[in-house]
Write a structure and sequence with these properties.
single chain, 671 residues, alpha/beta, OB fold (Dihydrolipoamide Acetyltransferase, E2P), 5 domains, eight-stranded mixed β-sheet, globular, binds adenosine-5'-diphosphate, binds magnesium ion
């Protein structure tokens, strides 16, 4: 038997370290620490400057601080028949005395003794006598390892039950000493003129000489995370390109010309230049992998349609995937209208509508042996058993509604077709570069001319009667409206749907004789379709809906949107919702009703009153709610960073991308 291949030192399990037995290892696993490397990258949650202490006499109620003193008295009091308790000790540092209390943790008594020297961290809850409740503490022990914990800036780590701060700090100190020389620069490595060496940064993140070193170290370690990620994405891309050859889908314009001619508008410059990029991709040697970014209403659908036409012209099939049935249906209706006269086949495939063929069986289409087809659908389009032959192009609309894994899976289905993913979530650049690092990016940064303005108002619920009056007036003038209630999630109880239903009855009553329709995710496909058809035809004037309508709907006559409980939506989502109006020439109005009790929540909504720039809004949302929330789902494919911050580190992400691009073929050697 050959000996097992040697494990690189930093990848060794923590159990190989002195002093780490099964019990400690099990605790460390709970902190995601399995290997030596994980331990070295365990990020302190804060630092304590144990070279300077706050005198107990100077502790305040406003600011948490560290004090140091000796326990002069301690005791445990039980009450309520012994079911409740409070443990307390009194600390003296020569300036004053400090009471430290813990409720219902009687076992703490064992950990402290009169005469112990202790660090405590917290802010006062009372001043007479000075009292801390549940402070963080650490008993000061001199001895061999004393210098690790005192007279320095000490790291305070996230812990788990049973794991002492002091023990973990000691372990990390010793592990650093032993393995520091194994920490090498990644390849490609950043310029050490601008950043500390990686090994240095690891030391500084744990045991900084000064507090300002911490941020320098964090940035270096964040950069390394971004480098690793960008290299991985480039590697994926490189592999993909090595294993795939592009189908020739550049087209010859014979379908595109007549479609553009009957469009009724001229493409914007932005649309034209994006199409030029796409045409080059479709005629190139590698399959296209392109992200099309454009704010709501910027006209991505036309670009998708033209891209489809190029492929169809070349004799290949196209699949267009939308995140909801309603949107798939809308694409189907719009595109079929334009494509039918040319004898092109358009098919719809959703969960509730299977392979409906839409064709006016023109003579031309019959004279062709196997006319290429545009398939439109939801993810059902790719459900097992439905294999698309000669698939030249996959277009994914509203990509942010799908996960990255899903995206990959889809494209594998076919024989490496070209891929165009479109997103209206104006993703902040940090996220875009992170999530879509393996894609080329095109941006539509120009709105079609002649759009009506959207005015946005944030109002409290007591203004609702006036708002309804306003909506009636607009409907009387011939316009239509959306009324939106917070989303009904799958796991929600039936009560939530009832709430929507009850509101619906109210709306019906208060708007009679105008008609309202109800739309939410629990309706059957056919029912949704019926409501949408009636709304499109203006047989109903008001659509009462959940956030289901946030993506893609395009009805220029709908010019009013009322969103209740607006505080329950993210800003980016509200921006998407608002994107449903302002699509025609009429002036549009978005009214956000906030029942939030806090001013802060209402302030947040003001961003929408102030700007319609999707990028500003999503940057604000990212700062307020973090990336997971912004993307709306866990499956967003976003990696977890220990040090990197998607709200702060745009410069680092850019730099990592540049570095990765310089490395030969983007293959990371070792990180
Ligand atoms: P989104 O980018 O949000 O998907 P759509 O593709 O739905 O936007 O386009 C919004 C509306 O703008 C549609 O009604 C579409 O017909 C119209 N539109 C698209 N491009 C132009 C243009 N160049 N000039 C005028 N209207 C356009
Ligand atoms: Mg769209």
């Amino acid at each position: 038997m050959s000996p097992p291949p040697e494990i690189p030192p930093l990848k060794r399990p923590v159990t190989s370290l002195w002093g780490v037995g099964a019990e400690r290892a099990a605790q460390l696993v709970r902190l995601d620490i399995l290997a030596v490397e994980d331990l070295l990258l365990h990020r302190p949650r804060r630092y304590e400057d144990r070279r300077h202490f706050r005198a107990i006499a100077e502790l305040t109620r406003d600011e948490a601080a560290t004090a140091r003193g000796r326990i002069v008295a301690q005791g445990l009091k039980r009450f309520r028949g012994g079911t409740k308790s409070v443990f307390e000790f009194v600390l003296d540092d020569g300036t004053a005395r400090l009471h430290c209390r813990w409720w219902n943790l009687p076992f703490l008594e064992k950990y402290f003794a009169v005469g112990d020297e202790v660090f405590v961290f917290g802010k006062l809850v009372e001043t007479k006598p000075r009292t801390l409740d549940h402070p963080e503490t650490e008993v000061i022990e001199g001895g061999e390892e004393g210098f690790i914990h005192i007279n320095r800036i000490a790291p305070i780590y996230p812990l788990t039950e049973g794991l002492p701060q002091r023990w973990l700090r000691g372990l990390i100190w010793r592990t650093l000493g032993r393995f520091e020389s194994q920490i090498v620069e990644p390849k490609p490595a950043p310029d050490l003129k601008d950043f500390p060496a990686r090994a240095n940064a690891v030391r500084m993140i744990h045991f900084p000489e000064e507090l300002i070193d911490v941020e320098m170290a964090r940035r270096r370690l964040a950069l390394d995370e971004f480098i690793a990620l960008q290299c991985e994405m480039r590697l994926r891309r490189t592999k993909f390109e090595a294993n795939s050859r592009a189908l020739p889908c550049g087209g010859d314009n014979h379908l595109m010309k007549p479609v553009l001619a009957q469009l009724g508008f001229k493409l914007t410059n932005a649309q034209t230049s994006v199409l030029r990029e796409i045409r080059a991709d479709l005629g190139g040697t590698h399959p296209m992998r392109r992200l099309l970014q454009g704010d709501v209403g910027s006209g991505k659908t036309v670009v998708a349609a033209c891209t489809a036409l190029m492929t169809l012209e070349s004799g290949f099939n196209v699949a267009l995937m939308a995140p909801t049935e309603i949107l798939a249906e809308q694409h189907f209706q719009n595109l079929a209208r334009g494509f039918d006269p040319l004898g092109l086949r358009v098919q719809l495939q959703t969960g509730s509508r299977k392979t409906v063929e839409h064709r006016e069986a023109g003579i031309e289409s019959q004279s062709r042996p196997a006319p290429s087809t545009l398939f439109i659908g939801t993810h059902a389009l790719f459900a097992s058993g439905f294999d698309l032959p000669r698939l030249g192009l996959v277009v994914i609309d509203e990509q942010h509604k799908f996960g990255v894994a899903q995206r990959e899976q889809l494209v594998r289905k076919g024989n490496y077709p070209h891929l165009l993913v479109m997103t209206a979530t104006p993703i902040p650049r940090t996220l875009g570069l992170t999530l879509y690092g393996d894609l080329d990016v095109s941006v539509i940064d120009e709105m079609p001319a002649g759009r009506g303005h959207v005015k946005t108002f944030v109002r409290k619920a007591d203004k609702l009667p006036k708002v309804w009056e306003f909506i009636r007036k607009k409907i009387a003038a011939g316009r239509q409206a959306y009324v939106v209630y917070p989303r009904v999630e799958e796991q929600d109880t039936a009560n939530d749907i009832k709430a929507v239903t009850r509101e619906f009855a109210n709306v019906q009553r208060s708007l009679a004789p105008f008609r309202a329709g109800l739309l939410h995710g629990r309706l059957k496909g056919r029912e949704k379709e019926g409501v949408m058809t009636a709304f499109r035809a203006n047989q109903i004037q008001v659509l009462v809906a959940t956030a289901l309508i946030e993506v893609g709907l395009d009805l220029p006559n709908a010019t009013v949107m009322l969103i209740e409980n607006a505080e329950r939506f993210g800003l980016a989502q509200l921006h998407q919702l608002r994107g449903r109006i302002g699509r025609g020439a009429h002036e549009s109005f978005c009214i956000l009703i906030s029942s939030a009790r806090t001013d802060e929540a209402r302030e947040r909504l003001r961003v929408l009153e102030e700007t319609t720039d999707g990028f500003c809004i999503s940057e604000a949302d990212l700062k307020l709610r973090g990336p997971g929330e912004l993307l709306g789902q866990r499956q967003s494919g976003l990696p977890r960073f220990r040090f990197g911050s998607l709200t702060e580190d745009l410069d680092l992400i850019r730099r990592a991308r540049e570095l990765a691009a310089q490395s030969p073929r983007g293959v990371p050697e070792k990180i």
